[in-house]
């Protein structure tokens, strides 16, 4: 998701937290390499303006890890959104909901809500209802859409990752989303927490920020990526 025009931002300083080769005992007592050296530390002002993020543990994962996150556009200008989805005939419910939302709003979105621990795939009509409930829980928790966005209403996209064939504990999700929407952060810790909320079997959070020159402009734009 992007807002435009991009603001001029300072050059990013990338610093690894650790470059040690320490190991820890994983499942079965086998050594698991420490992956902290893959994590990049960013400053609060490295991240793109116009977005607020938050994450929490809502009860999907049994180990207490972060499993629910939101990203919300706080810009007064319409926020463009796009999705690259599977062409498989058997799409998971979040893919169907996100595709329909983007088609109905001409590529506009207020934000997205993501969970990990349950993919909401191969879950039938109930899974589809749950994906729509996730989307509406965020949209309904946000302040009214700014008039500068125009009359066309934008919704909230949905993403889920994790175990296939299980239903989401939707009540836990829809009760936690409004709290997240009311506690959005703009700092580096909030972004890192969002990246951790994407994690399933990952051994470290995947968060990247980079600057690039905007075409036909003296300004720079920010590319932001959070991956599972």
From TrEMBL:
GO aspect biological process, one term: L-arginine biosynthetic process
GO cellular component, one term: mitochondrial matrix
Gene3D superfamilies, per database record: L-amino peptidase D-ALA esterase/amidase
Sample GO molecular function, one term: L-glutamate N-acetyltransferase activity
Transmembrane feature ranges: none
Keywords annotated in UniProt: Amino-acid biosynthesis, Arginine biosynthesis, Mitochondrion, Multifunctional enzyme
PANTHER family named in the record: ARGININE BIOSYNTHESIS BIFUNCTIONAL PROTEIN ARGJ, ARGININE BIOSYNTHESIS BIFUNCTIONAL PROTEIN ARGJ, MITOCHONDRIAL
Protein name as annotated: Arginine biosynthesis-related protein
